[in-house]
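hiii so my PI (J.) wants the whole complex modelled not just the main chain, which honestly fair. so below is everything: two entries, each one labled with what it is. i double checked the lines twice but i was tired so who knows lol
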Amino acid sequence: MTTTTDVPTRALKVWQGINQALVEEMERDERVVLVGEDVGRPGGPYGVTRGLRDKFGDLRVRDTPISEQVLVGLGVGGAAVGLRPVIEIMFFDFAMIAMDQIVNQAAKFRYFSGHDLPLVIRTMAGAGGPNGAQHSQNFEAWYSAVPGLKVVMPSQAADTKGLLKSAIRDDDPVLFIETLGLYTTRHDVPQVDEYLVPIGVADIKREGSDLTVVATGRLVDRSLEAAAQLAEEGISVEVVDPRTLQPLDTEAITASIRKTGRLVVAQEATAQYSFASEICALAVEECLSELKAPPVRVASPFVNVPTPVPLAESRAPGVDDVVAAIRKAMA
Amino acid sequence: MGTTAGRYRVMRLSRRFEETMHDQFGDGQVPGPLHLSIGQEAVAVGGCAGLRTSDAVISTHRGHHHCLAKGARPDRMMAELLGRTAGYSGGRGGSMHISIPDIGLIGTNGIVGAGLPIATGCAYGFQAQARDDVAVCFFGEGATGTGAFYEAINIAALWKLPLVFVCENNQIVELTPQEVHVAGELWRRGESHGMPGVRVDGNDVDAVADAVGAAVVRARAGDGPTLVEAVTYRWFGHYAGDRAAWRVEEEVQQWRERDPLIRTRAALPAEQADAIDEGIEELIGSALAFAQQSPVAGPEAIFPNHYASAS
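here's the output for the full assembly
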């Protein structure tokens, strides 16, 4: 568990954790800048960066035109000459426009030059608002397949804050995926001066002995709820949140699978060629003899995200879907 | 590179570097593509004449002359092109992936147009750190077909970035002539953004140095970006091995007669020019020996430098 009873905590929404991390890191290091569409004056479409421009000025908190290629280029070039930029791509879907700068440029900078590229690309993924098929997608698996990139995808406020601070201090390009559906969820955040969560370390959100659920994004809380329900029936579920997808904490994940012998992977993305598939492959390659049942994936159906919220929410896997998957794996 | 002799020396170095690599390519010693800038040397050398080490240069897939003009070591560049471990990228990257941030060379690049966003970022980095360094972005006329070019000139003008756009117009885009690619006048592309534009003879190193130099001074003073179109000509095909058979021989001959090296050499006393040539031959000879003596990069060379922790 990340939090302990020794440290005072305060309940924060996920977006507040992001805002605090940015403020703290920008106060600590003047090389840290925040650049993106609408990040300054309006504080972003969901208010995540509110107050930063007033605090740090419009050179360090820079509103940009709608130019995603140059937006990421500002990060690549800026980092190459001494900044530690945080670039915001408003919706993950818009990262498609900047794919060349992320994949062909940022990810390969060290490979070609041998030099650091301290760049954070923040973006927002998933359904949760009436945003539709071009503003709701989960592409985390695509970027996790690129050598040279780190991919962080936290689910709770404390992890989000601590991992964003670590990402800003990291000397590699980090794609930092925030989940829209989680921005206003509240969790305890330790109130300490330097709250850092290391990149590449999974967190066991709930300990259990019968089955392991590896979950990301919105499915972490939903898996915890499913685990609580099933505990009443005497099924002991362990919930592992990898928090970082690249590099993946394979040790923690395989240790949990070996302990329980059963695996469910839960994510908001669709199943084919996904993170869930990667975890299933890991389980089969590393833990086959310990597996008591075939792994089960919980994911969105292989269709686009609809615009009306009730339809979008019907597409995303819920607590019941996780419960059903656990029952299947336990049968 | 403020003197004619200095400029001639670097142009000669670039010419002989590429001729030597072209020979090595013919001998099967270059394990990668080779895009020759022969005929275009004055653009790089004039373009870098007013720069200091802390300024940034952003290059292209055809960038040996930019690298050498920014101060890259020819021996380590040759090692890179020959796939040797002493190369700038350990022999893994080759010609299109030479990046030396320590001397302000933020990379040749395999993606046409991709340097424009990065150059914009370098210029923003200088501005945000209140440095008076500038970024010079070289790109071909083909790159003006990308959206990245228009994103870059808009933001550079909007933010008054210390950035000089140098469009190295060699009149051929990859395998097709310019009329397939370019509408209107390139040097006027920044006009509606309020960005000054100028067209110069890209085979006249002093004219390029004057135009880019003035733009660099302007950028350093905080007065914003400039677009310089330097008109030159690519003597060879898109890549070594491309015979560019569709070209009219007379056109190639006309441009060879306008060789930027001959023009600059003519401005020097013959003895001085001869001495420079001799010095370059020695330098090229020792650079090639250095590269050839370096071990060929083996399969183990592919693993380092992907992440900081495992570098």
